Fold this protein.
Amino acid sequence: MSYVDEVLAKVKEKNASEPEFLQAVDEVLNSLRPVIDANEELYRKEAILERITEPDRQLMFRVPWVDDKGQVQVNRGFRVQFNNSIGPYKGGLRLHPSVNLGIIKFLGFEQIFKNSLTSLPIGGGKGGSDFDPKGKSDREIMAFCQSFMTELCKYIGADTDVPAGDIGTGAREIGYMFGQYKKIRGMFEGVLTGKGLSYGGSLARTEATGYGLLYLTKEMLKCNGKDIAGKTVVVSGAGNVAIYAIQKAQQMGAKPVTCSDSTGWIYDPEGIDVALLKEVKEVKRARLTEYAAARPSAQYHEGKGVWSVKCDVALPCATQNELDIEDAKQLVANGCFAVAEGANMPTTLEATKYLQENGVLFAPGKAANAGGVATSALEMSQNSERLSWSFEEVDSKLESIMVNIFHNLDDAAKRYNVAGDYVAGANIAGFEKVVDAMLAQGVC
Ligand code: NDP
Ligand code: 2IT
């Protein structure tokens, strides 16, 4: 049995109840085959794959808090510190009722390779809770965030582990968590990123994931003889990533015509009105029905459905496994020629394979959405030197990072004779740096 198959079997046996984690490991290890096969003896002896698929540590803790009725509620908190070979653990905190250990492990595992691709010194980690922020008052959100940080603060620090936002965690939550960290540890340090601008946040971090997604997509199209300008774009999600992806797509001359939330989706043939979308989602924290009510050109549909809209480019920006084989077939039948993942693992393995086999340019999340964490690393640099850079400076660094990521994965795919397979290219390019650091640091 090959070393890859041996480790895949072991990982499946040890993590049988974690389907998302197994899916992420399956994709990465399978596409690393050419690299592993070429160094099989060394990697097997050093147990590189066993080590890279086992987190350094996984923390799980009780998060008790009091709701507005005086009732004590209990959630479960997580932080998985996966791999710090190239820098302190770095990755977001997801607050969503679906969160469990397997989901945090899949996200933490992906983050190792994503963070390596940014070319910045950050390791992989992820955390969160099964807390549902929907419908909670500001006071309840604060009570949860303070309790969560009361435990988490024992394990993180500016040079140890630096969390940030993800689904359900935005500037408000980061603010409450930062305040609690500061109070307990007595230190004002860059322990979280995505902070408010008045207390050490970076300009352009809010926009970074969505903007970065478009910078990479534009470069991928350009290198394949196409132009993003004038293209119809279908976007899912209506959160941080989706909003700024829509905004940058418009700035590049493309026309995004959809967005979605957890209850329904919008088709707006005149193009999404970003100012209205921000008002509905960022300010009012309301449902997309409010967008439709305020915009005569918009059609609102309940449930799922954005992938049925005819488009040139599709950008899944909501959550994992939101684009399945049936969706992929519809996209191909409708002439879609590029898919770039703003979310983490939004496309199922079967759908990814189908898209690639049908000639669709496919940029995987760990490359395409790396602009968020890359800009978080730029926030860490600014915090370390106690300076703040201008929006233009951060944005131009972000753009060069994204262009560079695309060329690194394109080159890696070519070096291993899988030209155009950007999934393999991203995994290989991300892995190379991490494995080099792991080997240099010995058995640890
Ligand atoms: P937000 O919480 O800001 O937005 C998530 C959006 O997706 C919301 O509009 C939400 O609907 C919608 N959604 C639909 N179905 C689901 C579901 N089943 N579970 C969760 N959300 C759902 O999150 P982000 O925009 O920050 O994150 C979106 C994706 O991008 C995630 O996969 C995240 O891991 C990834 N990502 C985020 C980065 C960042 O910097 N924020 C960086 C890199 C990746 P509703 O409005 O009803 O809640
Ligand atoms: O998935 C991700 O890369 C994020 N949620 C951002 C992580 C970060 O540390 O900025």
About this structure: The chain is about 50% helix and 15% strand.
